[in-house]
Here is the input.
Amino acid sequence: VQLQASGGGLVQAGGSLRLSCAASGLTFGTYNMGWYRQAPGKERELVALSRNDGTTYYGDSAKGRFTISRDNAKNTVYLQMNSLKPEDTAVYYCHVFWKTRDYWGQGTLVTVSS
Here is the structure.
């Protein structure tokens, strides 16, 4: 399984970014896909989850501002981030739990300037 994340960058507070994560090596549509983030000096936290049944889950930091979506035909999961804040600055990772282990993308850095 490989996860390739992209879309990070530098943005001003209040701006938007869309992250993408392309997956390969698995039957994408049958798995839950997640976005996590890790800020300097902090633990990795769940941002949003796209379940294989079409439902979603958002961590408190993402509710009302971020939207997770997926395109099963393209084996890709997205994270649309709006109204970004400096505290959203972190490395963002996509994730899947496949065959008893966790798989992580390489991470994409999001920096939000004030």
